[in-house]
Amino acid sequence: MIKTKKIEVSYGKKIIIDSVDIHIKKGTINTLIGPNGSGKSTILKALTQQKKIDSGEIFFKGDPIQTLSRMYWAKNVTYLPQNPKAPNDFTVWDLVSLSRNAYLKWYERLGKKDYEIIEESIGKTNIQDHKYKLLSELSGGERQRAWIAMALAQEPELIILDEPTTFLDIAYQFEVLEIIKELNEKENITVLMVLHDLNHAAKYSDNIVLLKKGKVFAEGAPKDVMNKENIREAFDIEVKVQHDEEHNYPLIYPIRKAV
Amino acid sequence: MEHNLLIRKKITYLIIVGIALFIAFIMSVRFGAVELDTAEILKSLFSSVETTNRNIIWKLRVPRTLIAGLVGMCLSVSGCILQSVMKNPLASPTIIGVNAGAGLAAAVTLVLLPEMEYLLTPAAFFGAFATTWIIYIISWKDGIKPLRMVLAGVAISSIISAIINTILIFYPDRITNQISFTIGSLSTKMWSDFRILLPYAVIGLIIALIYSKKLNILLLGDEIASNLGINIERTRIILIAVASLLAASAVSIVGMLGFVGLIIPHMTRLIVGSDNRFLIPASALTGALVVMVCDTLARIVAKPMEIPVGIIMSLIGAPFFLFLLRRRFKYDD
């Protein structure tokens, strides 16, 4: 679905991403992990063309992304930044309906099909009970679900999320990740996200990209990437890794700072 | 159900303001140095017999009232657009240099070259619009960041006001001309002024309504908006241009009614919410209503003296806004 070839991004003279090759396969959940400043969010910005790449190439379904039209992109890919903001007096429905923009010409109003898709998206994220509530009346978890509903109403094939669980308590984090997994399984939506919590990444990802100082340090299935050597090298912490046989993913226990 | 209620509330507000606007129109035509009764007004509006009263109504009061309405409309819609585009509650036509530019033009035509007073309106219009572009160009660096533009606007405005003050210091005897422009007044406005204003108001309002959906999307931030298929820079430049044109046309005719463009959108937002599809028409009507009412008061509170409408607006409008602000705190972050 997305392939990058030796992309490089820098802010001024500082190189943030250095010769990164990423391959995201259709229908998979992909997670970028790495310490602060390792270039995770910048990669998402480069993929969504908010940050220009200095060199290299990015392909979306085989086409260089700079050749794709704005509307084509908007109909295929959706992006949720960290901590997105909307006016507090919008209702959930108002918010979700905005993402139909790419499907409407400037003089068109929401049609029957748009209404169906909006309702469906609200249903899939399990927020139908709150759809006419103002965003200011929602809890953190409900609000994040509203944003995911908005992303869904865009009918994307690929959904890109920058730390979708920040500012949420553990129950809401779980809820949001479960919804993402469900969308991946039921709707076959490809997911690319940044997560901070290594255990979340291990549990929910098919493919993990571990970044260090703007480079891909390791890439592959959670059980291959999440070992103590890799984590020590990337994060400078000593961890114990245990394999959960029942669910087939590694569990990581931080122990101390590496010396 | 709940949803319908929300929408119904917004539509009800539009209808109420619409009715209030009609009443305000009649009142504005009725009260003034010469008082007329409503029957007389209606008679004059629909018959063609030349009378003194009819002349007062047609040649003075009606155009003045219509101008008051249009000016209120232009400034509020301009403020609405800017607050959404800049994502900044303090954004108003003043921020994009409209007042500074018009003020400088006024200082040049009224103080430096008083024999060229007839150039005031075009000069003020040009000054206001040009200042917006200067601010836009100065704050451009890989695209426009709204906050950078707001700050650049403040800086440029302060440079321009220093220039204005310098001019005033050298011509202390002509300061009064400048002051009446600075406060903003509707006296002596005629049909010719109305005709200048009308096309800008109509075109600006139509474009603002067409773009109201995009304005809503811009409120979600550049990252999301661009991913929803919005061409951010192009949308922003069009909207800033429209906001500047709307405000420049109003300010060039009545002077700096700075307050309207800042407060009316907020006042309306507290009542109908941030959805620009309702906010823009509601602000347009509310702005028209407020300026009309304030101008009527301006003519009657100190009869036969006339107080500039700008003063009335700040003295009555601002406290009313503070009252709303304290009551409707639920929209705070």
Radius of gyration of chain B: 20 Å
Q: What name does CATH use for the topology of chain B?
A: ABC transporter involved in vitamin B12 uptake, BtuC
What is CATH's topology name of chain A? Answer: Rossmann fold
Oligomer: heterodimer
Instruction: Identify the most extensive interface between protein chains.
Output: A-B, 34 and 27 residues
The helical percent of chain A reads 25-40%
Kindly name the structural category of chain A: alpha/beta
- Major β-sheet of chain A, in short? 6 strands, mixed
Mean pLDDT over the residues of chain B: 87
Question: What is the CATH level 1 assignment of chain B?
Answer: Mainly Alpha
Listing every helix as H and every strand as E from the N terminus to the C terminus, the arrangement of chain B reads HHHHHHHHHHHHHH
- Total domain count of chain B: 1
How many strand units of chain B? 0
Average of pLDDT of chain A: 93
The best one-word shape of chain B is: globular
How would you sum up the major sheet of chain B? none
- Compressed to H and E, one letter per element, the order of chain A equals EEEEHEEHEHHHEHEHEEHHEE
**Rg calculated over all Cα atoms of chain A:** 19 Å
State the helix count of chain A: 9
